[in-house]
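Hey L., structure's done. Input below.
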Amino acid sequence: MYGIQNAISNNNQNLKTLDLSSNEIGDTRVQELGSVLRHNAILTTLNLANVGIGDVGAQHLADALQCNTTLTKLNLASNHIGDVGAQQLADALERDTTLIGQDLASKRIVYVRARHLAAALQHNTALNELDLARNRHEYVRKRYIADPLKRQTTFIALDLTPNRIDPVGPQNLANGFQGNMTLITLNLTSNRIGDVGAQHLADALQHNTTLTTLDLASNRIRHVGAQHLSAALQQNTTLTTLNLASNRIGDDGAQHLAAALRHNTKLTTLNLASNEIRHDGAQHLANALQQNTKLSTLVLSNNKIEDIGARHLAGALQQNATITTLTLHDNNIGPVGVRHLADALHQNTTLTTLNLASNRIGHVGARRLSAALQQNTTLTTLNLASNQFGDDEIQHLANALQQNTTLTTLDLASNRIGDDGAQHLANVLQQNTPLIALILASNRIGHDGAEGLANALRHNTKLTTLNLASNRIGDDGAQHLANVLQQNTALTRLDLASNQIGDDGVQHLANVLQQNTALTTLSLASNRIGHNGANVLANVLQQNVTLTTLNLASNEIRHNGAQHLANALQQNMTLTALDLASNRIRDDGARHLADALQRNMVLITLNLKWNEISDRGATCLMNALQRNVTLTSLELGGNLFTDGVALSEICCFLERNKRQVNHNG
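Output:
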């Protein structure tokens, strides 16, 4: 702590951001910190989340804020500040003219002293974002936040999630922002406002002319609350995004909102996921979409619209000319519903993204959807993950894709695709269809399927992303893909995580990476690489000039493997992101990587989470960052640190590097 105090008190020109979160600082050390903050003229951001500050520490900070002229962001989340501390901070805010963002989340501040913060907000002319997440609802119930909204001229974002806010809170908030002319984002997710609270907010929306985003997810709102919001939407002229996910509006609520959609001309995004909406509700929404000319994104995931609801929405798609994204994930839609959606795709000319994941499309549904894809010329992204597709269903899709001219992204993850299905898709890839991203993660593809895909990639010049994570290709499959990478010049992203690849498979991939000039991202996470495989890849990194992202997480690389990779980093000039999480590299591995960071001036992101690194390893990394000027992200969570000094210095150096990057444009 002394080193940090000294750096602050000497006005270190580089120290503009200081992160001391999750350390055992307490009130006594905060007092020392506050004394130097009074005179510091450089620091702009201070993170003191979860550091054991109580009322006494808050008072010391408040005293400092009244003198400090540069601090603009202060995070005090997850401390033990109570009424007295809140009062002291409020008094400081009343005079402060520089602080623009304050996070008081999880402070356990209750309404007895919340009035002091409210009074301060009425005089403060700088604060524009206030985060009161995870406090107590009395803050809002007693109007201590709502009243200042009427007079505040700087607030643009208010986060009150989750605060156990009951219906009285929204009434006070509504009274506050009816006259507010600056607030554009209000987040009330995971509260308890219910129908009554929704009514109060709806009343305010009829008059408010600034709010554009309203998040009311997980608030126990039912059809009555939806009715009030519907009435507001028919008059409101500014709201563009409404999130009502995880409520209970049901079919009646969907009907009310549908009535609004017939008249509203501003709302572009409506999220009704997880709302117990069935086919009747889907029908009301579908009818509205035939008249609505603005909504572009509709999310109905995790409802129960089933085949009948899908039929109604399909009918709307044949006429609607604005919806571009429709999400029907997990709605128990079967072959009949998919048939109707497929028929709509024959005529619709605006939908570009369709998510049908986690339904039960089946063999018949796959055939109808395949027939539609042969004619549709607008859909670019299709998600069919988790639909129990086997090789037969994939064959139908593959036949369609050979004629389709627009689909660029196809997600078939978590199905039952085996080697035969992979071969069907390989046949498609040989035709050079527009497909640029193919996601086949979590299927049953073995080395034979990998061989078929590899052969296709010898001729394909379009596919840039292939995800085969969590399959069974093994070393032989890795060899097949490696062989084709010697010729393929289109593929830039390859994910082979969790594929039982060992030293032999890595050797084959390494050999080709010395020649391949296209691949930029490679994931080999959760395989069996070990320190020997890391050594092989390290040799490649010394010569490869195109790979920018390498994921080797969970591979038992240990400190020997980290040493090999560190040696390579001292010469490599292209790798910008390296993930070594969960590899047990420990302090020796951290030391080797630290040595590399003193010389490497290319790496931007390094993930070392869950590696059993202690304070000794953190100190090595801190010392390295004194010289390194390019690394901007270093993930160190889940290690064995007890002293926060090195971590704080690391944060300072990373922020310095970020500023330099921003300055250089």
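The first helix runs from residue 2 to 9. The CA atoms of residues 526 and 554 lie 5 Å apart.

-- N.
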